Amino acid sequence: KGGKEKEVPDDIEEAFKLPVALDGSGSVSNHYDSMVKYAEKLKVADVWRFAENVDKLSTEKAKNTPAGGNTSGWKCLKEMADAGLSEIAIMTDFGFNDDASQADGISFEHVTMIVPANIKVNDEIKQKVIGMCKSYKEIKL
To answer: Which of 53, 58, 112, 131 could connect to 15 by a Cys-Cys bridge, CB 3.0–4.6 Å?
Structure first.
């Protein structure tokens, strides 16, 4: 290769140092695919994928799991908190359509939000997630 161009943007590389949750729903399918490619390039062992269900998948398995279905975002945040994670990164348009009450009472030290720029973001849900963390950073895709 030899070119100077970085394959993964710096802020994404930084985000992937944290446990990463990827929205696997249909609305962000092209972003899901590119995130999985970044994870692969950065040799990230596994990612949390949330769509119809929440699964912790190897990057290899995530690559072979197409995006589609619902968005179990609250359940994903709850499972990550239950796993003892206090700093996470999440790529989503915040179109969560599962029961928000299951995430009641959880909080994070830090959340890095990777937000697709060219699609509608559910701002109300995004604000709720911001309310769960002591600090956050937003990266626009």
So the answer is: 112
- Reported as a single tens digit per residue, the pLDDT across 81-136 is 999 999 999 999 999 999 999 999 999 999 999 999 889 999 999 999 999 999 99
Say how far apart CA 41 and CA 38 lie, in whole Å. Answer: 5
DSSP, res 65: S
Residue 133: Cβ within 10 Å count: 20
Which tokens hold the place of 130? Answer: 């911001």
The conformation of residue 138, written as its DSSP 8-state character, comes to E
**pTM for the whole structure:** 0.94
Residue 28, token pair as written in the block: 């962000």
Q: How would you classify residue 91: left for phi > 0, otherwise alpha for psi between -120 and 50, otherwise beta?
A: beta
119, two tokens: 């699609």
CA atoms within 13 A on the CB side of 111: 22
Contact call for residues 93 and 125 (beta carbons, < 8 A): no
Confidence of residue 76 (pLDDT cuts 50, 70, 90): very high
> What are the phi and psi torsion angles at 110 (to 5°)?
-150, 140
